[in-house]
Amino acid sequence: MHRILPLALCLLLLSGLSGCHRDKVYRIGISQCSQDDWRTKMNDEINREIMLHKDAVVEIRLADDSSARQIDDIRYFVQNGFDILIVSPNEAAALTPVIDEVYKAGIPVVIFDRNINSRSYTARIGADDEGTGRAAARYAMHLLGGKARAIEISGLRGSTPAAARHRGFVRELESAGGTLLASAPGNWNKEDAVPVVDSLLSIHPETNLIYAHNDRMAIGASEVARRLGRDDIKIIGIDAAPDIGIRAVADGIIDATFLYPTEGHRLVRTALAILKHEPYERETILPVSSAVDRSNADILLRQNEMLKEETRKIELLKTRIDLFQAEYSAQKSLLYAGIAIILLLCGVGFLLLRAWWQHSRHQKELMQQNRLLEEERDKQKRLNEQLENATQSKLMFFTNVSHDLRTPLTLISEPVAQLAAADNLTPQQHTLMKIAEKNVRILRRLIDQILDFRKYENGKLEVHRLEVDFNQCIREWMESFHAVACKRGIKLELEAPAAGQSLPLAVDVEKIERVFFNLLSNALKYTPRNGSITVRCRCDARQLTFEVADTGEGISEHDIGNIFDRFYQADRIHPRGSGIGLSLAKAFVELHGGTISVESQLHKGARFTVTLPVRHVAPATTETGAEDVDSATGQHNVEAEFETIDDHTSFDADKPIILVIDDNRDIRLLIKELMSADYNILTASNGREGVRLAARYVPDLVICDVMMPVMDGLECCRRIKNVLSTSHIPVLMLTACSMDEQRAQGYDSGADGYLSKPFSSAVLKSRCASLIANRKRIRELWSSSLPAGGRKQERPTPGPNAPAGDPDNEFYNRFLALFQEEMGNANLSIDSIAARMGLERSQFYRKIKSLTNYAPVELIRLLRLQRGRTLLTTTDKSISEIAYETGFSAPSYFTKCYRDVYGETPTDVRNRVAK
Question: Which residue of 54, 467, 609, 665 is surrounded by the most CB atoms within 10 Å?
Fold first, then answer.
């Protein structure tokens, strides 16, 4: 029901609006060149006709015989969006360009009365002006008995009706024996015609006929003739307008006038036919009318008076009809409005009632929902309490475990330190002990951080303030990092007061030192080689501020608001820490009543700012606790964080090559020390470097960590398997995560095996040996059975039984196709084959060697010998022809190589086959 009511209201409003809808009203612009009695009559006809068409209105503008003004009128109609123009051009030459412009703009144009010098119009309606001139000449000859001596008063020079009327009058008059004494323009006006007639009559006194192109000029000529006493002159005009021309004939002022058709109704009908796309005639020439003289002038005047009276009645009747129509429309609109208001009131009442019902129902529903929400809130509260208790229990367990780890860690760290300092260890054993000692220190620092953070959360972490010279402290802390920064190619600067200037204040030195250590170690981790780190320190009477600014990777806007949260890591894909360091640093600073903040832009570095209030304690307190301060930035802690253990690389060409890719240098060094006895070891710190080294050296095995910066292990494995030169290399993935989803992603990327951290050296060695052995067995599939009589049992000839459907098979098939194409070329080199295969010589060598167990030169020689053996046993070609065909430079060299491989000469084979 609530959908039906709005629909009914919309339909009602649409029906009401449809009663008020009006069809399109066409606007017709009419440009009259002048204002005279003839055009007044035409305008009356136009207005009478337009009353019969409710879908059209007209606007008539008069130019008063001015071409410039008429051009302005035409542009007015165009600018105001009139649908069609009806134009009576004042002068053809002046009006033609503007009418052409309007017509080409797509606006319909109707030309009437006068013409233009082009055909740029939609329709033209005009009288037969030349025929009118001929009719006037015939009437004059009849009136004067064939002895007409006439002068002509023409219209405006350049006007097309004037030219046509003159042409028709002259031709007809001269053909009938009359004489045209003179012709002069009167410009359609009585005032201009009077002096012209006066002058012509004085020049031509023999004149007995004056022919004027309109009635006004004819009346002017009559006045001049009567003033001169020339009542014998006959005067003829054109137009026969009722109030001017016909009245002048009836009053005896002029002798005759010719009816010039106005046809105002035809103009309106033609324009509407054009606009409504109805049929119309493009060219309409109105026929010549008869003369009006004393015999019919009175009748025409009476008819005109009757027509005016009827027109007045029609106009009165139309006015009343329009009034009745307006009243009817108003009453109809009022009725519709009343009905709409009643329906709206009914609808509003219904909606109000319905709203009250819905409100009542909603109140009940809300009360029910509030009850459910309260129950859910209580349940959520209980769950939060349980979760908090569980979290606290986990943290307590974690803290207890960390406490328990301290004892075995102490028992491990001291023996490891003693062994690392021993002099009777082998270089390999010394390297392994240094790795263990370094990571024991890191583990101890992490446990201390966890315990301190737990104390802070429980409110049991105390601050032991000591009065110190902070300028001296920060310089001592910086000293431990200079060597590490120098090794990494990083510029480390300190901007602080001069060395002798003291900055005394009371702080917990151990905690602030750990804050400094955390900030500076993070800066060293994330600043690339040739970068810079700047430490600034300043102090006033109220607070001390120190900053650590670097030019490293920076922190994204997404992470910058969370980096002080516990266990939060900005780089979750490739984490470089535990996520507790900055949160603990913030806790230490807040215990001092200070603040820590960060400003950073990605790839532009970061700046950490620590602000501490200046406080002081008694000197006695300083003396008591100074000896207990354990330096967090001591040389052993900095070395534990950034120490690089020296490794000595040796390369044995007879050993297989293993490429180790891991971002942890200690892991790379550990694997190298464990495997270097049996393998050549190459190392890379990220996936991008690993892909580059794999393509360059083509190792026998790749050991790759999953989580690494720059390029992770999965992408690295995928690229190695998709590159032709390295696609055959087995990849063993190292991961600290044992999730099946991650393992599935690794196998999808092409990994051949997984090994979880921490791993056993025995398992690592066994997996590496197994993968290389499996690869060797696969390589044997690329070799055929031993050749008969062969003495080199360890080197079988390659056969066509290679496994299909992988990049290695495609590579080998390409090689065979290229070799078979160039087999007869004795100058074929390994370099040219490698170049055509798209590989470097060393890459091509290792690829062929890994697939077939043959060097490329040996493989090509065996393939040639195999082809030669086939030709020896299946064709009658000579041994020399076979030698050259298989690419040997001389038959003797072919015989030598054949005997070395098959244990017999080609001649022996031929002799045996011949038997």
Answer: 467
Comparing C-alpha atoms, which of 655, 654, 725 is closest to residue 696? Answer: 725
**What pLDDT score does 643 carry?**
52
Residue 396 sits at φ, ψ, to 5 deg, of: -65, -45
pTM beyond 0.90: the answer is no
Report the DSSP beta bridge partners of residue 152.
Answer: 183, 211
> Cα 867 to the chain's mean position, in Å?
61
Dist CA 201 CA 909 (whole Å): 143
Looking at the predicted structure, is the pLDDT value of residue 799 above 50? no
Plot region of 182 (φ>0 → left; ψ -120 to 50 → alpha; else → beta): beta
Q: Which stretch of 71-75, 414-418, 676-680, 732-736 has the lowest confidence by average pLDDT?
A: 414-418
Tokens coding 700: 């026998």
> Residue 721 pLDDT more than 90?
no
Return the amino acid letter for 519.
L
User: Distance (Å, rounded) from C-alpha 684 to C-alpha 695?
Assistant: 13
Between CA 513 and CA 629 the distance in angstroms is 10
CA distances from 220 to 201, 416, 587, 671 (A): 13, 140, 117, 129
CA distances from 704 to 659, 694, 712 (A): 8, 11, 9
Residue type at position 715: E
Are the C-beta atoms of residues 872 and 798 closer than 8 Å to each other? no
Q: Cβ distance 20 to 329 under 8 Å?
A: yes
DSSP secondary structure code for residue 627 in this structure: G
Q: Is 149 helix (H, G, I), strand (E, B) or coil?
A: strand
Nearby residues of 471 by Cβ (< 8 Å), 6 or more positions away: 496, 497, 499, 501, 502, 503, 537
Tokens of 45: 């006809």
pLDDT for residue 803 is more than 60: no
Alpha helices in 247-296, H assignment, sequence order: 247-250, 264-275
Q: What is the pLDDT of residues 301-336, one digit of tens each?
A: 888 888 788 878 887 887 888 888 888 888 888 999
Amino acid identity at 749: S
Query: In this predicted model, what pLDDT tens digit does every residue of 811-860 receive, in sequence order?
Result: 778 888 888 888 888 788 888 888 888 888 877 877 787 777 778 888 88
What does the DSSP 8-state code read for residue 242?
I
Residue 663 backbone dihedrals phi, psi, to 5 degrees: -80, -15
What residue ranges in 617-727 does DSSP mark as E strands? 657-661, 680-684, 701-705
Instruction: Please tell me what DSSP assigns to residue 108.
Output: -
706 Cβ contact list (under 8 Å, min separation 6): 712, 713, 714, 733, 734, 735, 736, 737, 742, 746
Using CA atoms, how far residue 635 sits from 618, 638, 809, in Å, is 30, 5, 56
- One-letter amino acid at 708 equals M
Backbone angles phi, psi at 698, to 5 degrees: 50, 70
- Quote the DSSP letter at residue 875: -
Is pLDDT at 689 greater than 70 in this prediction? yes
Q: Among candidates 214, 133, 225, which has minimal Cα distance to 170?
A: 133
* Separation CA 420–CA 248 (nearest Å): 143
Q: Count Cα atoms within 13 angstroms, Cβ side, for 310.
A: 8
CA pair distance 287, 169, nearest whole angstrom: 16
Give the number of residues written for the chain. Answer: 915
* Helical H segments across 26-128, by residue range: 37-50, 67-79, 92-104
Q: What is the pLDDT of residues 625-661, one digit of tens each?
A: 334 445 555 555 555 555 555 555 566 767 888 999 9
Distances (CA, A) of 350 to 354, 361, 363: 6, 16, 20
Whether 828 contacts 860, CB under 8 Å: yes
Residue 840, strand partner residues: none
Residue type, 8: A
Separation of alpha carbons 395 and 387, rounded Å: 12
CA distance 411 to 427: 24
